[in-house]
Design goal:
The protein is of the alpha/beta class and 438 residues long. It contains 18 helices and 13 strands. The protein has a 5-stranded mixed beta sheet with strand order 2-1-3-12-6. Helix 9 crosses helix 10 and helix 9 crosses helix 17. It is globular and about 70 Å long.
Length: 438
Amino acid sequence: MSTSTSQLPRRTFLAGVAGLGAVGALAACSSGSEAPSSSGGGSTPGQLQGTINGLFMKQAGYSEQHIRQMAAAFKKANPGVTVNMEFVAYEALHDKIVAAAAAGTYDLVFIDVIWPAELASKGLIADISDRIPANWSTDILPGALNSAVYQKKFYGIPWLLDTKYFYFNKAMLSKAGIEPSSVTTWDGVAAAAKTLKSKGIVKYPLMWSWSQAEAVICDWAALTASFGGKLFDDSGQPAFTSGGAVQALEFMRRTLVDGLTNPSSTQSLEDDVVKVVSAGDAAMGLNWTYMFAAANDPKQSKVAGDVVITEVPNGGAGRMSVNGSSALSITATTKNPDAAWAFAKFVSSQKIQEKYVSDSLPIWNASYDSPSVIKSAPEVVPVAKEQLANMVNRPQVVNYNAISQKLQVAVQKALLGEVDPKQAMTTAAGDVEQILKQ
Protein backbone atom coordinates (compact mmCIF):
# COMPACT_ATOMS: atom_id res chain seq x y z
CA MET A 1 0.00 0.00 0.00
CA SER A 2 0.99 3.59 -0.31
CA THR A 3 3.18 5.01 2.40
CA SER A 4 2.02 8.54 1.77
CA THR A 5 1.93 10.41 5.04
CA SER A 6 -0.03 13.11 3.29
CA GLN A 7 -3.16 11.01 3.32
CA LEU A 8 -3.93 11.59 6.99
CA PRO A 9 -4.01 15.25 8.01
CA ARG A 10 -5.05 16.72 4.71
CA ARG A 11 -8.42 15.01 4.85
CA THR A 12 -9.58 17.18 7.74
CA PHE A 13 -9.02 20.47 5.90
CA LEU A 14 -12.49 21.90 5.46
CA ALA A 15 -13.56 21.19 9.00
CA GLY A 16 -10.68 23.44 10.00
CA VAL A 17 -11.76 26.13 7.57
CA ALA A 18 -15.25 25.91 9.01
CA GLY A 19 -13.72 26.74 12.36
CA LEU A 20 -12.50 29.98 10.81
CA GLY A 21 -16.02 31.02 9.95
CA ALA A 22 -17.20 28.66 7.25
CA VAL A 23 -20.78 27.51 7.27
CA GLY A 24 -21.60 23.97 8.31
CA ALA A 25 -23.59 21.54 6.22
CA LEU A 26 -25.45 23.81 3.86
CA ALA A 27 -29.21 23.79 3.78
CA ALA A 28 -29.47 25.58 0.43
CA CYS A 29 -28.14 23.41 -2.39
CA SER A 30 -27.91 24.11 -6.08
CA SER A 31 -29.27 21.71 -8.65
CA GLY A 32 -27.28 18.62 -9.53
CA SER A 33 -27.61 14.86 -9.63
CA GLU A 34 -30.33 14.94 -7.01
CA ALA A 35 -31.50 11.37 -7.48
CA PRO A 36 -29.17 8.70 -8.82
CA SER A 37 -29.91 7.17 -12.14
CA SER A 38 -28.65 3.77 -13.12
CA SER A 39 -27.26 3.89 -16.61
CA GLY A 40 -25.98 0.73 -18.22
CA GLY A 41 -29.23 -1.18 -18.07
CA GLY A 42 -29.99 -1.15 -14.33
CA SER A 43 -33.06 -0.31 -12.32
CA THR A 44 -34.42 3.19 -11.99
CA PRO A 45 -34.25 5.15 -8.71
CA GLY A 46 -36.73 3.82 -6.15
CA GLN A 47 -36.79 0.38 -7.80
CA LEU A 48 -33.31 -0.72 -6.79
CA GLN A 49 -33.11 -3.75 -4.52
CA GLY A 50 -30.48 -5.55 -2.47
CA THR A 51 -27.55 -4.80 -0.20
CA ILE A 52 -24.42 -2.72 -0.77
CA ASN A 53 -21.36 -3.34 1.39
CA GLY A 54 -19.03 -0.34 1.27
CA LEU A 55 -15.49 0.15 2.55
CA PHE A 56 -14.55 3.72 3.46
CA MET A 57 -11.63 5.57 5.03
CA LYS A 58 -11.88 6.88 8.58
CA GLN A 59 -9.81 9.98 7.88
CA ALA A 60 -11.82 10.97 4.81
CA GLY A 61 -12.82 14.59 4.44
CA TYR A 62 -16.42 13.51 4.91
CA SER A 63 -16.93 12.51 8.53
CA GLU A 64 -18.36 9.11 9.32
CA GLN A 65 -21.46 10.81 10.66
CA HIS A 66 -21.99 12.72 7.42
CA ILE A 67 -21.41 9.65 5.25
CA ARG A 68 -24.06 7.84 7.27
CA GLN A 69 -26.39 10.79 6.73
CA MET A 70 -25.77 10.52 3.00
CA ALA A 71 -26.60 6.82 3.16
CA ALA A 72 -29.82 7.58 5.02
CA ALA A 73 -30.84 10.05 2.32
CA PHE A 74 -30.07 7.47 -0.36
CA LYS A 75 -32.08 4.87 1.55
CA LYS A 76 -35.06 7.22 1.68
CA ALA A 77 -34.98 7.54 -2.11
CA ASN A 78 -34.27 3.83 -2.55
CA PRO A 79 -36.09 1.94 0.24
CA GLY A 80 -35.29 -1.42 -1.33
CA VAL A 81 -31.54 -0.98 -0.83
CA THR A 82 -29.60 -1.59 2.39
CA VAL A 83 -26.22 0.12 2.69
CA ASN A 84 -23.68 -1.39 5.09
CA MET A 85 -20.56 0.66 5.73
CA GLU A 86 -17.19 -0.20 7.22
CA PHE A 87 -14.58 2.45 8.06
CA VAL A 88 -10.86 1.70 8.38
CA ALA A 89 -7.68 3.76 8.69
CA TYR A 90 -5.88 4.70 5.50
CA GLU A 91 -2.95 2.45 6.40
CA ALA A 92 -5.27 -0.59 6.36
CA LEU A 93 -7.42 0.38 3.39
CA HIS A 94 -5.36 -0.85 0.44
CA ASP A 95 -4.53 -4.25 1.91
CA LYS A 96 -8.12 -4.79 3.02
CA ILE A 97 -9.40 -4.12 -0.50
CA VAL A 98 -6.94 -6.64 -1.93
CA ALA A 99 -7.47 -9.28 0.76
CA ALA A 100 -11.26 -9.12 0.58
CA ALA A 101 -11.46 -9.30 -3.21
CA ALA A 102 -11.47 -13.08 -3.54
CA ALA A 103 -14.39 -13.41 -1.13
CA GLY A 104 -16.35 -10.63 -2.80
CA THR A 105 -16.84 -8.92 0.56
CA TYR A 106 -17.40 -5.39 -0.76
CA ASP A 107 -19.47 -3.85 -3.51
CA LEU A 108 -17.98 -0.36 -3.27
CA VAL A 109 -14.53 0.72 -2.06
CA PHE A 110 -12.80 4.02 -1.40
CA ILE A 111 -9.53 4.21 -3.40
CA ASP A 112 -6.59 6.58 -3.44
CA VAL A 113 -5.56 8.28 -6.68
CA ILE A 114 -2.38 6.18 -6.89
CA TRP A 115 -4.19 2.80 -6.84
CA PRO A 116 -6.33 2.53 -10.03
CA ALA A 117 -3.57 1.00 -12.16
CA GLU A 118 -2.80 -1.75 -9.66
CA LEU A 119 -6.38 -2.56 -8.67
CA ALA A 120 -7.67 -2.43 -12.25
CA SER A 121 -4.85 -4.55 -13.66
CA LYS A 122 -5.51 -7.16 -10.97
CA GLY A 123 -9.18 -7.21 -11.90
CA LEU A 124 -10.31 -6.03 -8.46
CA ILE A 125 -12.33 -2.99 -9.54
CA ALA A 126 -14.79 -2.65 -12.41
CA ASP A 127 -14.48 -0.63 -15.60
CA ILE A 128 -17.43 1.77 -15.45
CA SER A 129 -16.62 3.76 -18.58
CA ASP A 130 -19.99 2.94 -20.16
CA ARG A 131 -21.78 4.39 -17.13
CA ILE A 132 -20.04 7.78 -17.14
CA PRO A 133 -22.44 10.47 -18.45
CA ALA A 134 -21.06 12.45 -21.39
CA ASN A 135 -21.71 15.77 -19.66
CA TRP A 136 -19.31 14.88 -16.85
CA SER A 137 -16.38 15.71 -19.13
CA THR A 138 -17.40 19.37 -18.89
CA ASP A 139 -19.37 19.45 -15.63
CA ILE A 140 -16.70 17.88 -13.40
CA LEU A 141 -13.25 19.37 -12.84
CA PRO A 142 -10.89 17.52 -15.20
CA GLY A 143 -8.36 16.64 -12.51
CA ALA A 144 -11.14 15.15 -10.40
CA LEU A 145 -12.61 13.15 -13.26
CA ASN A 146 -9.18 11.63 -13.96
CA SER A 147 -8.68 10.48 -10.37
CA ALA A 148 -9.64 6.88 -11.19
CA VAL A 149 -8.62 6.61 -14.85
CA TYR A 150 -6.28 3.90 -16.07
CA GLN A 151 -5.46 3.29 -19.75
CA LYS A 152 -8.19 5.77 -20.68
CA LYS A 153 -10.87 3.79 -18.86
CA PHE A 154 -12.82 4.86 -15.79
CA TYR A 155 -12.54 2.72 -12.67
CA GLY A 156 -14.29 4.95 -10.16
CA ILE A 157 -16.36 8.04 -9.50
CA PRO A 158 -14.37 11.01 -8.12
CA TRP A 159 -15.43 11.84 -4.58
CA LEU A 160 -12.86 13.69 -2.48
CA LEU A 161 -10.66 16.41 -3.94
CA ASP A 162 -7.27 17.66 -2.85
CA THR A 163 -4.15 19.14 -4.37
CA LYS A 164 -1.09 21.03 -3.22
CA TYR A 165 -1.07 24.82 -3.05
CA PHE A 166 1.58 27.47 -2.53
CA TYR A 167 1.51 29.35 0.76
CA PHE A 168 3.26 32.59 1.68
CA ASN A 169 3.42 34.86 4.71
CA LYS A 170 2.13 38.21 3.46
CA ALA A 171 3.52 40.11 6.48
CA MET A 172 7.04 38.82 5.84
CA LEU A 173 6.84 39.65 2.15
CA SER A 174 5.55 43.13 2.93
CA LYS A 175 8.33 43.74 5.44
CA ALA A 176 10.88 42.83 2.76
CA GLY A 177 9.17 45.05 0.19
CA ILE A 178 8.17 42.08 -1.95
CA GLU A 179 4.98 42.25 -4.00
CA PRO A 180 2.85 39.08 -3.76
CA SER A 181 2.54 39.12 -7.55
CA SER A 182 6.27 38.39 -7.77
CA VAL A 183 5.89 34.89 -6.29
CA THR A 184 3.65 33.59 -9.05
CA THR A 185 6.69 32.05 -10.78
CA TRP A 186 9.40 29.80 -9.35
CA ASP A 187 12.07 32.28 -10.45
CA GLY A 188 10.15 34.92 -8.54
CA VAL A 189 9.96 32.67 -5.49
CA ALA A 190 13.74 32.14 -5.54
CA ALA A 191 14.33 35.88 -5.88
CA ALA A 192 11.93 36.64 -3.05
CA ALA A 193 13.60 34.04 -0.85
CA LYS A 194 17.01 35.64 -1.47
CA THR A 195 15.61 39.04 -0.51
CA LEU A 196 13.98 37.70 2.65
CA LYS A 197 17.22 36.01 3.66
CA SER A 198 19.50 38.95 2.85
CA LYS A 199 17.32 41.33 4.87
CA GLY A 200 17.41 39.01 7.85
CA ILE A 201 13.65 38.56 7.99
CA VAL A 202 13.89 34.76 8.12
CA LYS A 203 16.97 32.52 7.97
CA TYR A 204 15.41 29.90 5.70
CA PRO A 205 12.53 31.38 3.69
CA LEU A 206 11.42 28.07 2.16
CA MET A 207 10.14 24.93 3.90
CA TRP A 208 9.20 21.66 2.17
CA SER A 209 8.14 18.05 2.85
CA TRP A 210 11.13 16.36 1.23
CA SER A 211 11.64 13.40 3.53
CA GLN A 212 12.29 10.10 1.76
CA ALA A 213 8.60 9.31 1.55
CA GLU A 214 5.67 9.74 -0.81
CA ALA A 215 5.58 13.40 0.25
CA VAL A 216 8.70 14.27 -1.75
CA ILE A 217 7.26 12.62 -4.86
CA CYS A 218 4.17 14.80 -4.54
CA ASP A 219 6.27 17.99 -4.42
CA TRP A 220 8.54 16.82 -7.25
CA ALA A 221 5.52 15.86 -9.40
CA ALA A 222 3.97 19.31 -8.94
CA LEU A 223 7.22 21.08 -9.78
CA THR A 224 7.86 18.79 -12.74
CA ALA A 225 4.46 19.63 -14.22
CA SER A 226 4.95 23.35 -13.67
CA PHE A 227 8.33 23.11 -15.44
CA GLY A 228 6.64 21.37 -18.37
CA GLY A 229 7.87 17.84 -17.71
CA LYS A 230 6.42 14.39 -17.09
CA LEU A 231 7.52 11.61 -14.80
CA PHE A 232 6.26 8.98 -17.26
CA ASP A 233 5.33 9.27 -20.93
CA ASP A 234 1.99 8.28 -22.45
CA SER A 235 3.21 4.73 -23.03
CA GLY A 236 4.01 4.28 -19.35
CA GLN A 237 7.79 4.54 -19.66
CA PRO A 238 10.13 6.76 -17.58
CA ALA A 239 10.29 10.36 -18.82
CA PHE A 240 12.07 11.81 -15.80
CA THR A 241 15.62 11.63 -17.13
CA SER A 242 15.39 14.95 -18.96
CA GLY A 243 13.30 18.07 -19.41
CA GLY A 244 11.03 19.41 -16.69
CA ALA A 245 11.58 16.56 -14.24
CA VAL A 246 15.34 17.18 -14.10
CA GLN A 247 14.85 20.97 -14.11
CA ALA A 248 12.52 20.65 -11.14
CA LEU A 249 15.00 18.54 -9.21
CA GLU A 250 17.82 20.97 -10.05
CA PHE A 251 15.68 23.82 -8.75
CA MET A 252 14.97 21.93 -5.53
CA ARG A 253 18.68 21.19 -4.99
CA ARG A 254 19.69 24.77 -5.81
CA THR A 255 17.44 26.21 -3.10
CA LEU A 256 19.22 24.00 -0.58
CA VAL A 257 22.69 24.95 -1.82
CA ASP A 258 21.79 28.66 -1.74
CA GLY A 259 20.52 28.40 1.83
CA LEU A 260 16.99 29.39 0.82
CA THR A 261 15.39 26.08 1.85
CA ASN A 262 15.51 24.93 5.44
CA PRO A 263 17.88 21.91 5.42
CA SER A 264 15.49 20.06 7.74
CA SER A 265 13.13 19.83 4.74
CA THR A 266 14.92 16.65 3.67
CA GLN A 267 13.69 14.98 6.87
CA SER A 268 10.29 16.64 6.97
CA LEU A 269 6.71 15.72 6.11
CA GLU A 270 3.65 17.90 5.51
CA ASP A 271 2.86 18.48 9.17
CA ASP A 272 6.39 19.77 9.66
CA VAL A 273 5.83 22.38 6.97
CA VAL A 274 2.71 23.55 8.81
CA LYS A 275 4.60 23.76 12.12
CA VAL A 276 7.58 25.68 10.74
CA VAL A 277 5.46 28.18 8.81
CA SER A 278 3.08 28.55 11.78
CA ALA A 279 6.03 29.29 14.06
CA GLY A 280 7.12 32.14 11.78
CA ASP A 281 10.29 30.28 10.80
CA ALA A 282 9.52 30.12 7.08
CA ALA A 283 7.85 32.48 4.63
CA MET A 284 6.81 30.11 1.85
CA GLY A 285 6.00 26.47 1.16
CA LEU A 286 3.90 23.86 -0.65
CA ASN A 287 1.23 21.84 1.11
CA TRP A 288 -2.21 20.30 0.91
CA THR A 289 -5.34 22.36 1.49
CA TYR A 290 -5.56 21.64 5.20
CA MET A 291 -2.57 23.88 5.89
CA PHE A 292 -4.59 27.04 5.31
CA ALA A 293 -6.82 26.45 8.32
CA ALA A 294 -4.00 25.18 10.53
CA ALA A 295 -1.55 28.00 9.78
CA ASN A 296 -4.24 30.63 10.33
CA ASP A 297 -5.58 29.19 13.56
CA PRO A 298 -4.49 31.47 16.44
CA LYS A 299 -4.61 28.50 18.81
CA GLN A 300 -1.76 26.79 16.99
CA SER A 301 -0.08 29.48 14.88
CA LYS A 302 1.99 32.55 15.73
CA VAL A 303 1.28 34.01 12.30
CA ALA A 304 -2.48 33.48 12.11
CA GLY A 305 -4.06 35.78 9.56
CA ASP A 306 -0.81 36.25 7.61
CA VAL A 307 -0.66 32.99 5.67
CA VAL A 308 -2.07 33.24 2.15
CA ILE A 309 -3.08 30.31 -0.05
CA THR A 310 -2.49 30.59 -3.79
CA GLU A 311 -1.77 28.49 -6.86
CA VAL A 312 1.52 26.69 -7.37
CA PRO A 313 3.99 29.06 -9.08
CA ASN A 314 4.63 28.80 -12.80
CA GLY A 315 7.84 27.15 -13.93
CA GLY A 316 7.14 27.95 -17.57
CA ALA A 317 4.34 25.49 -18.32
CA GLY A 318 1.61 26.87 -16.11
CA ARG A 319 0.58 26.84 -12.46
CA MET A 320 0.32 23.07 -12.19
CA SER A 321 -0.03 20.94 -9.08
CA VAL A 322 -0.37 17.28 -8.09
CA ASN A 323 -3.59 15.32 -7.73
CA GLY A 324 -4.26 14.10 -4.19
CA SER A 325 -7.87 13.04 -4.74
CA SER A 326 -9.81 9.85 -4.10
CA ALA A 327 -12.66 7.97 -5.73
CA LEU A 328 -15.35 5.36 -5.11
CA SER A 329 -14.89 2.19 -7.14
CA ILE A 330 -17.31 -0.63 -7.81
CA THR A 331 -15.67 -3.97 -7.15
CA ALA A 332 -15.37 -6.50 -9.94
CA THR A 333 -17.08 -9.14 -7.77
CA THR A 334 -20.18 -7.18 -6.77
CA LYS A 335 -23.51 -8.89 -7.36
CA ASN A 336 -25.32 -5.56 -7.22
CA PRO A 337 -23.44 -3.18 -9.56
CA ASP A 338 -26.48 -1.00 -10.33
CA ALA A 339 -27.15 -0.20 -6.69
CA ALA A 340 -23.44 0.37 -6.03
CA TRP A 341 -23.26 2.74 -9.00
CA ALA A 342 -26.40 4.57 -7.90
CA PHE A 343 -25.07 5.06 -4.37
CA ALA A 344 -21.65 6.29 -5.54
CA LYS A 345 -23.30 8.67 -7.99
CA PHE A 346 -25.67 9.93 -5.29
CA VAL A 347 -23.00 10.74 -2.68
CA SER A 348 -20.81 12.43 -5.29
CA SER A 349 -23.69 14.47 -6.75
CA GLN A 350 -23.53 18.25 -6.78
CA LYS A 351 -26.43 18.56 -4.35
CA ILE A 352 -24.88 16.27 -1.74
CA GLN A 353 -21.37 17.67 -2.14
CA GLU A 354 -22.58 21.23 -1.72
CA LYS A 355 -24.61 20.24 1.32
CA TYR A 356 -21.48 18.87 3.00
CA VAL A 357 -19.02 21.44 1.65
CA SER A 358 -17.75 22.07 5.18
CA ASP A 359 -16.10 18.63 4.93
CA SER A 360 -14.67 18.74 1.41
CA LEU A 361 -14.75 20.85 -1.73
CA PRO A 362 -17.02 19.63 -4.56
CA ILE A 363 -15.91 17.97 -7.76
CA TRP A 364 -18.36 20.06 -9.83
CA ASN A 365 -17.29 23.10 -11.85
CA ALA A 366 -20.53 24.98 -11.21
CA SER A 367 -20.13 24.68 -7.43
CA TYR A 368 -17.23 27.14 -7.47
CA ASP A 369 -19.57 29.90 -8.60
CA SER A 370 -22.16 29.08 -5.95
CA PRO A 371 -22.44 31.85 -3.30
CA SER A 372 -22.99 29.29 -0.55
CA VAL A 373 -19.89 27.32 -1.52
CA ILE A 374 -17.76 30.47 -1.78
CA LYS A 375 -19.04 31.58 1.61
CA SER A 376 -17.90 28.29 3.14
CA ALA A 377 -14.24 29.21 2.57
CA PRO A 378 -13.92 32.54 0.74
CA GLU A 379 -10.12 32.63 0.78
CA VAL A 380 -9.83 29.08 -0.50
CA VAL A 381 -12.63 28.44 -3.00
CA PRO A 382 -11.52 30.93 -5.71
CA VAL A 383 -7.98 29.55 -5.58
CA ALA A 384 -9.23 25.97 -5.56
CA LYS A 385 -11.39 26.68 -8.61
CA GLU A 386 -8.22 27.40 -10.59
CA GLN A 387 -5.80 24.91 -9.05
CA LEU A 388 -8.10 21.90 -9.04
CA ALA A 389 -8.52 22.36 -12.79
CA ASN A 390 -4.74 22.26 -13.25
CA MET A 391 -3.26 19.23 -11.57
CA VAL A 392 -1.55 16.06 -12.76
CA ASN A 393 -1.65 12.49 -11.52
CA ARG A 394 1.37 10.73 -10.21
CA PRO A 395 2.38 7.87 -12.55
CA GLN A 396 -0.51 5.51 -13.28
CA VAL A 397 1.61 2.36 -13.29
CA VAL A 398 0.79 -1.05 -11.87
CA ASN A 399 3.72 -1.31 -9.45
CA TYR A 400 3.47 2.29 -8.32
CA ASN A 401 4.53 1.72 -4.71
CA ALA A 402 7.75 -0.06 -5.66
CA ILE A 403 8.52 2.54 -8.31
CA SER A 404 7.80 5.41 -5.93
CA GLN A 405 10.21 3.99 -3.38
CA LYS A 406 13.00 3.85 -5.99
CA LEU A 407 12.28 7.42 -7.02
CA GLN A 408 12.21 8.60 -3.41
CA VAL A 409 15.72 7.28 -2.90
CA ALA A 410 16.98 8.87 -6.14
CA VAL A 411 15.41 12.25 -5.41
CA GLN A 412 16.79 12.21 -1.87
CA LYS A 413 20.33 11.49 -3.09
CA ALA A 414 20.10 14.41 -5.52
CA LEU A 415 18.75 16.75 -2.86
CA LEU A 416 21.55 15.81 -0.46
CA GLY A 417 24.17 16.39 -3.15
CA GLU A 418 25.30 12.77 -3.21
CA VAL A 419 24.81 12.64 -6.97
CA ASP A 420 23.97 15.06 -9.78
CA PRO A 421 20.17 15.34 -10.38
CA LYS A 422 20.36 14.13 -13.98
CA GLN A 423 22.57 11.19 -13.05
CA ALA A 424 20.27 10.32 -10.17
CA MET A 425 17.34 10.13 -12.56
CA THR A 426 19.28 8.15 -15.17
CA THR A 427 20.21 5.56 -12.57
CA ALA A 428 16.65 5.47 -11.24
CA ALA A 429 15.29 4.90 -14.74
CA GLY A 430 17.19 1.61 -14.96
CA ASP A 431 15.74 0.44 -11.65
CA VAL A 432 12.24 1.51 -12.65
CA GLU A 433 12.44 -0.23 -16.02
CA GLN A 434 13.26 -3.49 -14.23
CA ILE A 435 10.19 -3.08 -12.03
CA LEU A 436 8.00 -2.37 -15.05
CA LYS A 437 9.08 -5.71 -16.57
CA GLN A 438 7.92 -7.69 -13.54
